[in-house]
Structures
1.
Amino acid sequence: MQIGIVGLPFSGKSTLFQTITKTHIDPAALAKSETHQAMIKVPDERLDKLTDIFQPKKKVNATIDVIDVVGLKKGDSGSIQFTSNFLSKVKTNDALIQVVRLFENESVPHPEGSVNMMRDIEEFETEFILSDMVIVEKRIASIKKQILKIKDEQLKRELPVLEKCYELLQNETPLRETHLRDDELKLLRSYQLLSAKPMLIALNLDENQVNDVDKYLNDLARKKLGSNTKALAFFGKIEMEMSELSDEDARVFMEEYGIKESALNNIIREAYELQGLQSFFTVGEDECRAWTIKKGMNAQEAAGEIHTDFFKKFIRAEVVHYDDFIADGSFAKAKENGHWRLEGKEYVVRDGDIISIRHG
């Protein structure tokens, strides 16, 4: 999975990228507007606990690729330019994090002249919708021409879906909030439509706004949020300082400022939920690993994530849920209590399942 971080200049976008990836970008590189990408491990206390129990040679977390999407500039008129180069970089991501600045800093003025949460959010939404409208409109015109020449059932199925999307976009409705059916989403996937991508809005506050978090989030929830648009708050400057501390010092730092959870843990959890992702585990003396799959995947599909041969030659899955295993204390006790079981290929994997695949 790849997540792109977007935001207006001086919003704290690169600060968030450096914080969650635990990297340091040289100021000279930032000035050149270079794209930065890093792979981060998904923190999971369950995997940590399983590693403590099994003492494997290796622990492997699930991972996510994060990109600091660059390319936004101020034009000669003073307005922000959403260039085709910037939009093309955004398209390659599975989900987006939009960093929205809520802090004041006279030495680094807001590019629009003032801090305004809804204006900044709507600016991106409008540009994404307009970009999608251009793509959808061109495709509709192309399909109508092709249908006159050839009989193609695929095109006939695609046309009404695109026309439905175009009408929604005309009404300024982002496609992520339209509850399109799975078959409709599949038809649209190749177009990489921007307003269809799950969006996490990250509000960047300073240390003087710790007590204002709920107010901003509640205001945003009333006006903007839907099933595929989530929001959270983080403290860019504080989080950046914490990322350079030891775990123990960081905990003390968080307590001083009343921060309950680090940006990394919060953002990954929300990103997982937005994408409809979950984790299952494989354990043993050699390795304890977290595997990322889509919610609703069955045991055979999950087995295919481990190895393609496991999908083709799937026989059964040995399954016990993490919570049951921890409560029972061992696989033997889990079997005795009826928590360990054999499941067929149609078994729908749950988040936190510990699985061993039997295959031919």
2.
Amino acid sequence: MNSERTFFINNIFNIENENEFQKIALRLFRYQAKENLVYREFISYLELKPDEIQSLEEIPFIPIGLFKTHSIISGSDVPTNYFESSGTTGMRLSRNYITDISIYEKSLRKGFENVFGNIEEYTIFALVPDLKEKKNSSLIYMIDDWIRRSREKRIDNKKQRTDDGYYLNDLQNFSETLSRLDSEGRKCIVIGVSSALWDFSENNSLKLENTIVIETGGMKGRRVEPVRQELHQKLKKGFGMKRIHSEYGMCELFSQAYSREDGHFFCPPWMKVMIHEINDPFRYCHVNDSGVINIIDLANIDSCSFISTMDLGRMSVEGHFEVLGRMDGSDIRGCNLMVI
């Protein structure tokens, strides 16, 4: 195995402070600038020299649209699979090629634990298609991993199957089972595409006390897009809760950011968001000013860790970020297209 790649695998999930993040990010940038053909060509077009780049602000971020037209791969190992973006017939989809799925698994597990604690303490209810239907979805892979690990709860040293599972096409059972477990004091997580959660909330009025609800994005193609505050108010009423969590991820990333409420997202230690001005990718916005979201995802070792999205956002003084929408002319995309 490449010694540099081994270094990143062994260190990115142990980052403890900003100084460590910057050192590893710059080292990974130089590695990918050499080992990733598409990224190397992109940098050469900008007439930049990787060895002269000394700060995160100087790093060029690859346009996310290139994942639709090119194979973004770092290193010489042959990918074994890929994650693919959601879309409708005729849409060109993005692909993030997978060399080592264990990196993604470690990222999604540690990312969950940073926010919610031990997965084995929860019963997972998923309002999404199952993995058989969407085998190349990074979101579904993540949720399936949660469900499998949650089902391996041990009682008297024996494995016991729980009520974890996919409920998108069984909403009556979902409502009854969730209400029963919540009333028994069981800790539950409901995660779903926002359109499915919205539809459920329009026809139900629960009162939950031991449940976390996580929405994964906007309506994207299903109905007129509500602002996040409107979506969360609808879900709070439908599930009888005081707060709604959100997940921010995409197939081009190996990491996810989560909000604790109202769409204010926090990154895990190996992921960072930077907001640049719309008309200048090397000029970064002040706190609370809106611009384009750039993402450093150090878990993207075998792909590209430096991605310029088509999402608009802003940073806060506290260090969280908000997603404000999409740039004009960008494709509609997102996990809710999986249920069309």
3.
Amino acid sequence: MEKKILFIDLDGTLLTDTKEITPENLEAIRKAVDLGHAIVVTTGRPLYSTVHQVEKLGLTQPGCYAITSNGALIYNSNTKETIFQTGVPRACLREAFDEAFRFGLHPQTYSATGVLCEKDCPEMQYYAKSNIIHYEVVEDVTQVLDFDPIKLLFVELHDRSRLEKFREHMKDFSKRYHLDMFFSCDQYLEFLPEGINKGSGIRFLCSYLQIPLEHTLAAGDAENDITMLKAVHLPCVMKNARSEMYAYGKYITEHDNNHSGIAEIIEKFML
């Protein structure tokens, strides 16, 4: 049997809307791993939030990896080592935060241990709760960070169009600092280094592990999953995805994220 590698998004894909993992999904993942297949959590979440989910899934044995922060940090879940990391230039942080505040949006970035923001607000509390993550409110993020952070994130909980207008406004900024901008869900707009995304993370990891791309499949539901779906041999899109995402899947699940769509994919293509 050929070894396959499944790259799974977390929010809206593996996790239910209440951020749980169904028993069926858990059981299917364990069966796949027991057969020698690899499961790689591939998420926009930062490392410290991803580790919590990886441990919950039991994906910490040799050969287990996680692609975090949309490809900005890749982690060996068994040895607990970072094998790849990049970041957005610190020089762009002040301007990005000030522009977000002008638009009435919540900006945040990341330290080595948690999230950094300059105002406590419902958006920050929502993000921290749903990602099970520590955050710190500081006067000026540029004075606290002594390295390039993994990414920038902008949050608007109720009206995606406000983030879309902000993205349009920040086009020149993104060109100046060589950044890519994309949605990881309707509430989150992310800025990452140009060319860094889930797809680049998959190509790096497959090369690192010497696994041919013909043996890869992926499951996702949102805009930040497009590069991942394009990178693998068998892209699977969740039933609950926005309808424009369906074009990126060779397979659309019959079950959504709340009804074990991942177990469906694993049973159909890996077991």
